[in-house]
Design brief:
There is one protein chain. By secondary structure, the chain is an alpha/beta fold. The chain folds into two domains: 218 residues, Rossmann fold (3-Layer(aba) Sandwich); 28 residues, no CATH class. It is built from eight helices and seven strands, in the order βαβαβαβαβαβαααβ. The protein has a seven-stranded parallel β-sheet, sandwiched between helices.
Length: 272
C-alpha cells in the first residue's frame, strides 16, 4: 500500500458513503484527515467509525459541519482546518449526489423535469466542487504544493438515461479539473496537481432502487450496465481507494489534469 504518513487531507462529503470510505483509505495510509459534511448527526457518526481506523494507524481524524455551497462557511472551515492541521496537502471533493426531482424516470420525459431540482443537482455537484477547490486551493498555492482530487462520473463519459442534470454537472467537474490543473501548475507551482476519478457503477443508497429490485434481483437497468461492463460486475467502493491514494502521493508527481475511470471497463467498451 502507498503510504501517506504525515500528509494532511480534507475530504468534503466525508460523512457520506463515498467520502467516508475514501477517508478510511487515507487514514489507513497514515494521513491525518478532516471530514466535512453538511449534517451534524452524520459527521458525528462517521467520526465515531473513523476514529477507530485512525487510532489503529497512528493518525488523527477531525470533523466539521459545513455546507459546501456556502462560501462563508467554507472560508471559516478552511481557517479552522489550517489552524488544526497546519497545512493542507490533499483535498478530495466527494460532496455530491443526485436529486430525485432532477431524475427523469422511464414514464417521464425531459419536459417533466423540475427546474428548481435541476439547479439543485448542478449546484451541489459542480459548485460544491468549485468552492472547495478555490478555497483550499488558495492554501495550496500559498504553500506551493498540494493534490486536489475531484469526483467525476460515468455520466460525464457516456450519455446515460435519466440523469441529465447530474451529467451536466459532472461534465463541468471534468472541465474544472483540467482548467485548474494548468492554472495551478503554470501560475503557482508544478507541485500543485489537480486530477479526478470517474467511478463506474457501485451500488449505494443513492442508486440502489434503480439497480436492485425489492426481491434482491437486478433491475433491467442493472442488466444493461453489466452487459456493457467487461468485468461483468459492479464495483466495490473500496476499489476506489487505491487510485485515490496514488493520486495523493508523490508517485503521481507528473500527473495533473487527468480524469481516470474506475469502471471495470465500462467507458472503453462499445457493448459489441
Amino acid at each position: 500500500m502507498i503510504k501517506l504518513t504525515g500528509k494532511k487531507a480534507v475530504v468534503t462529503g466525508g460523512s457520506g458513503v463515498l467520502g467516508s470510505n475514501i477517508s478510511e483509505g487515507l487514514l489507513q495510509a497514515g494521513a491525518d484527515v478532516v471530514i466535512i459534511g453538511a449534517h451534524h448527526e452524520k459527521v458525528t457518526a462517521a467520526l465515531e467509525r473513523l476514529k477507530t481506523v485512525a487510532d489503529a494507524n497512528g493518525c488523527e481524524v477531525f470533523g466539521y459541519v459545513c455546507n459546501v455551497l456556502d462560501q462563508r462557511q467554507i472560508n471559516e472551515t478552511c481557517e479552522r482546518v489550517v489552524n488544526t492541521l497546519g497545512r493542507v496537502d490533499i483535498l478530495v471533493n466527494a460532496a455530491g449526489g443526485n436529486v430525485p426531482g432532477a431524475t427523469i424516470m422511464d414514464d417521464q420525459s425531459v419536459f417533466d423535469m423540475k427546474m428548481e431540482d435541476l439547479h439543485k443537482v448542478i449546484d451541489l455537484n459542480l459548485y460544491g466542487t468549485v468552492y472547495p477547490c478555490l478555497t483550499f486551493g488558495k492554501v495550496m498555492a500559498e504553500q506551493g504544493s498540494g493534490s486536489i482530487i475531484n469526483v467525476s462520473s460515468m455520466a460525464a463519459y457516456e450519455s446515460l438515461s435519466r440523469v441529465m442534470g447530474y451529467a451536466i454537472a459532472k461534465e463541468g467537474v471534468n472541465a474544472l479539473t483540467k482548467w485548474l490543473a494548468q492554472e495551478m501548475a503554470i501560475k503557482y507551482s508544478e507541485k500543485i496537481r489537480v486530477n479526478a476519478i470517474a467511478p463506474g457503477f457501485f451500488i449505494g443508497e443513492q442508486n440502489r432502487k434503480a439497480l436492485i429490485n425489492d426481491d434482491g434481483s437486478l433491475t433491467e437497468r442493472s442488466h444493461k450496465v453489466i452487459a456493457k461492463t467487461p468485468m461483468r460486475r459492479f464495483g466495490d467502493i473500496n476499489e476506489l481507494n487505491g487510485i485515490v491514494r496514488y493520486l495523493c502521493s508523490d508517485e503521481a508527481s507528473f500527473m495533473t489534469g487527468t480524469i481516470i475511470p474506475v469502471d471495470g471497463g465500462f467507458s472503453s467498451f462499445s457493448g459489441v
